[in-house]
Amino acid sequence: xxxxxxxxxxxxxxxxxxxxxxxxxxxxxxxxxxxxxxxxxxxxxxxxxxxxxxxxxxxxxxxxxxxxxxxxxxxxxxxxxxxxxxxxxxxxxxxxxxxxxxxxxxxxxxxxxxxxxxxxxxxxxxxxxxxxxxxxxxxxxxxxxxxxxxxxxxxxxxxxxxxxxxxxxxxxxxxxxxxxxxxxxxxxxxxxxxxxxx
Length: 198
Fold this sequence. Notes:
Elements: H1 3-14, H2 18-26, H3 31-37, E1 45-52, E2 56-59, E3 64-72, E4 75-78, E5 84-87, E6 90-97, E7 100-106, E8 113-114, E9 127-130, H4 133-138, E10 144-146, H5 155-160, E11 164-167, H6 170-179, E12 188-191, E13 194-195
């Protein structure tokens, strides 16, 4: 965990104003969803950014406004009073424009997915996967959003082991089917309750 990532996220969260909340609500992010995300960490922030090469960004006062979404990964520790304490350190920050939600930038490049921790304690239920960080906010963090779509992404070996993925839409289902190695066993990928031909 990098302390500077925490500091940057806190600074971005402090910049959120009522117009930002109104815009997110207009885009389908309910107050309930954001509050649920905020139980463990700041659900999002805002700042002006400049794009860097390689899909990264850096804060820039003269840059474009962006939504900043923290990518957290749980750390489990033995507690003194309770048997287990879970901390949610930030491992990366994702910048996304509300008007271009399918394009995002990384702060460090560490994160391969939002909600990837849901796969850590997978209990056999179908895994919901959404297309964008904005969709992930709408889902209150109760889904996986693949951020790293490169051929060598850590996402593919993990997703390949799942028997059933529920994609949020047909386009995402097709992208997932194409990205997962066709020579290995693949999970069933469906949209809602409909099976998707992969």
